[in-house]
Backbone:
């Protein structure tokens, strides 16, 4: 077992395991001199104790290898900094993976890597092993949980600042299309933008006070939506399930894709919008979201 930490929890775990564990326990501490380091060092000197002490300021790859993470049955990370814990966990997963598969896939010489399996843990393993082999490789990774995807992206960017990293949550990307379809708004396309999504959708102006009676310029709302094109609702039948942004533009030429800023939107108009998820919610419900709602 391996314990890495800089606080009393690491010390407490080591003391408890010293009393009950028959296997070797390696404790990684930043110093021997603080109150916890000196007590762990005393356990380490006891010939009957399974405790091994390793001093390192940071739980980097070299430290984790020296601690034997590849062979460890368990790893405890108790640093007070969440990003340090996440980085160490990702490194440990990568060290415990199977880099031979990536070597055969020539990852060492690859410029980009797409990791798209349905197993989040497997995707993390592959990415970390690939980054250890080729630190500069560009990575796009599929993760189901959006919060995990955001955390992993921040951590990998901090650990490998010179290598582009993108993690995408499939559920988060699909959610706007499902929500819009349920509310009767046809989404033409979804574009991931950092941790959010930009949606392209067709909306009838009638019944939307945020649009009706306003000019194209006045209808623009920063970080929420922008009018891309204006056409007649009567001249353009409702969007079909096969419509896309390109299809609307090229197969339905009646839309004006460069409407004057002063063009006033009327009840008989239909518009193509670029919106955020939050902006689409406002248009669909007419309800302003809570200020802490940060959906993109």
Residues:
């Amino acid at each position: 077992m391996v314990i890495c930490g800089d606080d009393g929890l690491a010390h407490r775990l080591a003391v408890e395991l010293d009393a009950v564990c028959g296997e070797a326990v390696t404790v990684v501490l930043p110093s021997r001199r603080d109150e916890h380091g000196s007590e762990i060092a005393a356990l380490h000197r006891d010939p009957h104790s399974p405790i091994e002490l390793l001093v390192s300021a940071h739980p980097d790859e070299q430290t984790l290898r020296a601690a034997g993470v590849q062979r460890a049955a368990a790893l405890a990370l108790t640093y007070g900094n969440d990003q340090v814990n996440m980085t160490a966990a990702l490194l440990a997963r990568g060290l415990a993976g199977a880099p031979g598969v990536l070597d055969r896939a020539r990852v060492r010489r690859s410029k980009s890597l797409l990791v798209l399996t349905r197993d989040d843990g497997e995707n993390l393993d592959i990415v970390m092993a690939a980054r250890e082999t080729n630190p500069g490789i560009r990575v796009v990774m599929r993760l189901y949980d959006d919060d995990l995807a955001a955390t992993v992206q921040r951590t990998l960017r901090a650990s490998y600042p010179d290598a582009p990293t993108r993690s995408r949550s499939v559920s988060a990307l699909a959610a706007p299309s499902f929500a819009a379809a349920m509310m009767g708004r046809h989404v033409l396309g979804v574009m991931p933008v950092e941790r959010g999504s930009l949606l392209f959708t067709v909306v009838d102006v009638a019944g939307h006070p945020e649009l009706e009676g306003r000019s194209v310029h006045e209808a623009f709302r920063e970080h929420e939506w922008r009018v891309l094109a204006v056409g007649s609702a009567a001249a353009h039948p409702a969007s079909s399930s096969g419509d896309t942004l390109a299809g609307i533009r090229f197969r339905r030429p009646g839309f004006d894709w460069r409407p004057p800023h002063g063009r006033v939107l009327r009840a008989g108009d239909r518009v193509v919008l670029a919106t955020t998820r939050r902006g689409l919610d406002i248009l669909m419900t007419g309800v302003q979201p809570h200020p802490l709602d940060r959906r993109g």
The chain has three domains: 2-95, 99-169, 183-285. Residues 29 and 55 are 5 Å apart (CA to CA). The chain is about 40% helix and 20% strand.
